[in-house]
Specification:
mainly beta, four-stranded antiparallel β-sheet, 11 strands, binds FE2/S2 (inorganic) cluster
Amino acid sequence: MSGWIAVAAADDLEAEDVLGVSVGGRDYALYRAPDGTLSASQGFCSHEAALLADGFVVGTAIECPRHQGRFDIRTGAALNAPACVALRMYPAKEEAGQIWLNLGDTP
Ligand code: FES
């Protein structure tokens, strides 16, 4: 998988929210910060693999639904226990009414 891929309609992701998408059998989480900035990460929490799209965004953090660990949606950094390993982030952009992900050389 490489290059930019349209993964969702831009209107499907509101400010301060998360949206889960699946591409090539892998899950990703799309985020929109309160200021409208888009970002994207791996779909599962780095702690015990809960689906991050089932969590909720508070400001610029995603709170995991299982143990309430939080990650910075701009950088993927773990913000509080039990989350301690950063999320892998992916380039995301909004263009032509779509949200696009660049998965690089993700196998
Ligand atoms: S599974 Fe996400 S904090 Fe534990």
